[in-house]
TrEMBL record:
SUPFAM superfamilies (UniProt xref): RmlC-like cupins (SSF51182)
Lineage: superkingdom: Bacteria
Site entry (Participates in a stacking interaction with the thymidine ring of dTDP-4-oxo-6-deoxyglucose), positions: 161
GO MF annotations in UniProt: dTDP-4-dehydrorhamnose 3,5-epimerase activity
GO cellular component, one term: cytosol
Species this chain originates from: Candidatus Methylomirabilis limnetica
Pfam families: dTDP_sugar_isom (PF00908)
Name of the protein this chain belongs to: dTDP-4-dehydrorhamnose 3,5-epimerase
């Protein structure tokens, strides 16, 4: 007898009406099965430990991860429970590497010409599964620290920051354009 049938028999149908079966999210090898927004890329990083500590490669042009050269690099911290975004760029792509903490990144594709127009991606990257994320221009993104320690990430945008005319446009966290509600009140 299946688990669901047994639950129905033991507890009645009313107890199982609220049950929702999980869908597959990864392959047995750990590769995500959900599609990413068009042009978004995620490259997993391997951390190599030894008796002295660890080393983790962040970016190597030989990976062919991005055609654009590294022209500007900055580091960001985000306190537990805090949120940055929604942000979109029109002249640059972001290349974000999460090195510490647990960061939830939600992406929304409003680009009408994109084959994934209207798609949302929700990714979680942490020091336990470090990775380099390519966020193409025109894709909105919000970053939330969902851990209990500061998040630290590095961005290597494809264009240096223009202090006089920033390529950064913002929307309120909860808005009518993006079909996603950001909960900035985390319960640990």
């Amino acid at each position: 007898m299946s688990i669901v049938r047994r639950l129905i028999a033991e507890r009645g149908a009313h107890m199982t009406e609220a049950l929702k079966k999980d869908h597959q999210t990864v392959t047995p090898e750990g590769k995500a099965v959900l599609p990413l927004i068009h042009d978004v890329r995620l490259r997993s990083a391997i951390t190599h430990p030894d008796e002295r500590g660890t080393i983790c490669e962040i970016y190597n042009p030989a990976w062919n991860f991005s055609d654009a050269p590294v022209v500007y690099v900055y580091q960001v911290t985000l306190r537990p429970g805090r949120v940055k975004g929604w942000v979109v760029h029109y002249q640059q792509d972001d290349r974000v590497f999460v090195s510490q903490g647990t960061l939830k990144i939600v992406l929304y594709d409003p680009r009408k010409e994109s084959p994934t127009h209207g798609m949302l991606n929700e990714l979680c990257i942490s020091e336990h599964n470090r990775g380099l994320l390519f966020i193409p221009r025109g894709v909105y993104h919000v970053l939330q620290n969902v851990g209990t320690t500061d998040v630290m990430f590095i961005n290597m945008p494809t264009r240096a920051y223009n202090h006089a005319d920033p390529d950064k446009y913002r929307l309120p966290l909860n808005n009518d354009l993006i079909p996603y509600r950001v909960d900035d009140r985390l319960d640990w």
